[in-house]
């Protein structure tokens, strides 16, 4: 199993039967009176997560672009990380793009590239900036690498940490739910 599949494996359990009308193919013992797990049980895994970031990341992984509010929540969280760290480091605003706009564009790029690793193989460094919406007249690749790349790395760490925490919460909830359903 590749690392991408392993990274998102716990989220697959949530996608099975996530809507009220989804068929349930879970193994169950007929005639025992046991209630099979349904979408409400699985959505409880999201509710059990500690932070809104974890909940929003999970929603994006499961529902994709349909989860626009959660996407914006994660994007604004990551952008805030960049802005606060750049302010703390005493970085001055780039000349041709506002730091808030740069942070939003970079956060979108980080989310898209983290959740779709195929993008990484198809874009050069300059292509990544173009994908994000930062044009060459706004910032050179050298300026980005020397000054702003470190903040992209911080955003990647924050997002990967949220994905990891969400996966652990799903796994713990799943084990607890199956344990309770057997008792």
From TrEMBL:
This is Uncharacterized protein. It comes from the Bacteria.
């Amino acid at each position: 199993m590749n690392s991408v599949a392993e990274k998102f494996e716990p989220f697959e359990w949530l996608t099975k039967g996530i809507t009220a009308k989804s068929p349930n193919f879970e193994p169950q013992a007929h005639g025992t009176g046991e209630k099979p797990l349904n979408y409400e049980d699985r959505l409880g895994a999201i509710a059990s997560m500690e932070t809104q970031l974890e909940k929003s990341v999970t929603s994006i992984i499961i529902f994709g672009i349909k989860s626009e509010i959660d996407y914006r929540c994660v994007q604004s969280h990551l952008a805030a990380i960049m802005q606060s760290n750049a302010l703390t480091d005493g970085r001055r605003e780039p000349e041709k793009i506002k730091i808030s706009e740069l942070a939003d564009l970079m956060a979108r790029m980080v989310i898209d590239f983290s959740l779709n690793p195929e993008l990484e193989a198809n874009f050069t460094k300059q292509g990544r900036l173009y994908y994000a919406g930062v044009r060459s007249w706004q910032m050179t690749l050298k300026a980005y690498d020397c000054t702003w790349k470190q903040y992209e790395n911080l955003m990647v760490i924050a997002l990967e940490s949220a994905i990891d925490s969400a996966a652990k919460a799903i796994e713990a909830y799943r084990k607890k739910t199956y344990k309770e359903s057997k008792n």
